[in-house]
Amino acid sequence: MSATPDSSAHPAQPAPGDAEHTSSPAPADAPLRILQMLALAVEHTDDAVMITRPDGVIEYVNPGFERITGYPADQAIGRTPGFLRSGAPSPGFYGQLWQTIRLGRSFRAVFTNRRRNGDIYFEEKTISPIRGRDGDIRHFVATGKDVTERMAATRHLEHKAHYDSLTGLPNRSLLHDRLHQAIQRAQRKGRLVAVQFVDLDRFKIINDTLGHATGDRVLIEAARRLRDCLRATDTVARLGGDEFVLIQEDLEHPDMAEQVARKVLDTFSSHFPIGIHDLFVNVSIGVALYPGDGADPESLLMRADLAMYQAKEAGRNSFRFFEAALDAGSMRSLTLESAIGEALERREFSLVYQPLIDTRSQAPLAVEALLRWHSPRHGSIPPDHFIPLLEENGRIGDVARWALREALRQVRTLQEAGHPRLRLAFNLSGRQFRDPGLVQDIRAALDDTGFDPRLLDLELTEHTLTDNPEAAAAALRALRQLGVRLSLDDFGTGYSSIALLAHFPLHSLKIDRSFIQHMERDQQAAIIVRSSAGLARNLGLEVIAEGVENLAQLALLQELGCHLIQGQVLARPLAADELGRALAPA
Ligand SMILES: Nc1nc2c(ncn2[C@@H]2O[C@H](COP(=O)(O)OP(=O)(O)OP(=O)(O)O)[C@@H](O)[C@H]2O)c(=O)[nH]1
Fold it and tell me: Taking every annotated instance into account, which residue ranges of this chain make up the domain GGDEF (predicted)?
């Protein structure tokens, strides 16, 4: 049924008799026409219109109201609007409503109401008082719009902004809010908060071997297991990838965090039945505690993350609590990581050269270029610390290209200064070796510096060659066509050293320093040095010994027929100008 503009059925409806609503009685029928027009507008609007008496009893509802609420006018009129309520409004909501409209002001809000069929809907409603000429409130008029769809869309967006779509867990941004609130509560109550950083072990293998979809199912199951390890009031969030964070609130003692960490490890010790697969997925956990390890979400998360890395390094499938000592070292590597990003542009790298001495003539026959980094903030950083950082941040290629050109240029200068046959030994990293532009880069660098390719010795490790022997053989052939020499570095440390000698077109091999250093006392090391040297000589390769520290080793290596010796005992690494001066008498 629909409401009609019948003033007897709807006493609150604006009708000609309500002269008090008009400011001045107008002659003839003009006001009547206006009133009829207003009545029609109210009848035809999509919005819900409801007019009540000052005590809230409904006197009129329009067809829009009937459509939105599902209540016909005769079931609404005579009642107060309470029948539309959906349940618990926020505390004080209706008190505020009445206070505002009784003071004669309009009240505007989104109401959560219930339709006649039981569905919840959201109504954006304005309630305004209507006063008589004497200034007294005669009616209230409420106009409302059904904004359920809009609210659902907004909620959907809000959900998307705060929850991970794969697992349904809170995402990074909601985690931050929750952690922030947990810290504030803990501060008031004097309790602890534990932040546990959980990372699946070797998850990449699952993706790589069984596919991303299987990986996703593992992540969903992992999320479920983590959720089951905590109380409902605690938070489990997914940071992204295979990283999750647990927030435990209201702790009295760190032991309670340890219990949960153990429970998580235990939960992951049973297999994951995913489709036809039975997978074992372990996790590594790092724990940081408020207030001891940090007072804000960022530092707690960072420290839990550092502790998690410790757990990974200790062999995975374990947990670690954050320790301050761990922070000092790890913070340093984090700040080093950011410092190294710009080091090339800031000209913080340099090269030093370690001479390789001919065992017969005792003259320096070659120099090996070694990269050094001096950071203005951190001082001199050893290569075994910064090379991995360069590899991780992908800058190794740029730095290596710079280093090769710089070394060719500097050694060319030495050659021109009276050492025309001085060779340059240069280490090629695995990544550089796999770079498809390698041969072209080297050719261009040789051309640009006018360096004789026969005097360039490129050193490769066994590992580089065995990673992909086919591709390595092709790359070595291309390099040989440039006319450069090729050396096998760290000889003896891999499993396939001898096979490599037979298969790759090499010129020299460098016996690894670990054998040289132990050969005086360790019979096995001595045998390896002796047989490597013999083997190389028989294959027509030049033999180089590196890491020679004392004269006894030197004598022994001479006796074994090593051609070149490299080590502190003969010459330490020198900068190009120092080297120039050291070589001057030649
Ligand atoms: N299936 C799936 N894989 C993802 C998703 N997000 C990230 N990954 C993959 O998760 C893997 C994360 O691997 P890492 O944590 O770096 O390494 P890991 O193999 O777990 O090894 P460790 O952490 O060192 O034990 C990568 O292979 C990502 O491609 C995702 O939403 N679904």
Answer: 191-324
Q: Which of 216, 242, 279 to mutate to test the pocket of ligand 1 (most atoms within 8 A of CB)?
A: 242
Q: With respect to CATH, is domain 344-583 assigned 3.40.50.300?
A: no
Task: Please give the Cα distance from 362 to 487 (Å, whole number).
Answer: 21
Amino acid (1-letter code) at residue 535 = L
Q: Given this structure, which CATH class describes domain 19-152?
A: alpha beta
User: How does pLDDT run across 90-149, given as a tens digit for each residue?
Assistant: 778 888 898 898 888 999 999 999 999 999 999 999 999 999 889 899 999 999 999 999
Domain coordinates in residue numbering, the chain: 19-152, 164-322, 344-583
Q: How far apart (Å, rounded) are the C-alpha atoms in residues 516 and 525?
A: 7
Burial of 122 (0-12, 13-18, 19+ CB in 10 A): buried
Ligand 1 centroid to Cα of residue 218, in Å, is: 11
Main-chain dihedrals φ then ψ at residue 411, nearest 5 degrees? -70, -35
Separation between Cα atoms, residue 147 and residue 123, nearest integer Å: 6
| Stretch (H or E) spanning 253 | none
Nearest CA residue ID for atom 8, ligand 1: 241
- Maximum Cα–Cα distance across the chain: 132
* Token output for 555: 């004598």
Which residue is listed with tokens 């757990």? 311
Report the separation in Å between the CA atom of 295 and the middle of ligand 1, taken as the mean of its atom positions.
Answer: 29
pLDDT in tens, 337-388: 767 878 888 899 999 999 999 988 888 999 999 999 988 777 788 888 888 8
Contact 247, 179 (CB under 8 A): yes
- Give the pLDDT score at 424: 98
The answer on pLDDT for 457 being more than 70 is yes
Tokens of residue 540, six digits: 């027509």
List residues near ligand 1 (CB under 6 A).
166, 199-204, 207, 212, 215-216, 219, 241-242, 312, 316
181-207 confidence digits (pLDDT tens): 999 999 999 999 999 999 999 898 888
How does residue 28 score in pLDDT terms, banded at 50, 70 and 90? low
Q: How does pLDDT run across 129-142, given as a tens digit for each residue?
A: 999 889 899 999 99
- In the predicted model, what is the mean pLDDT of residues 564-580? 87
Separation of CA 561 and ligand 1 centre (Å): 51
Residue 365's pLDDT is 94
The DSSP code for 352 is E
State how far the Cα of 77 lies from the Cα of 188, in Å rounded to an integer: 51
Nearest to 132 by CA among 310, 12, 307, 288: 12
Cis geometry, peptide bond prior to residue 11 (ω within 30 degrees of 0): no
Q: How far is the CA of 241 from the centre of ligand 1 (A)?
A: 5
pLDDT value at residue 496:
56
Output the CA–CA distances (angstroms, integers) from residue 205 to 208, 270, 280, 308, in the order listed.
5, 18, 12, 19
- State ipTM: 0.94
Fold adopted by 164-322: Alpha-Beta Plaits (3.30.70)
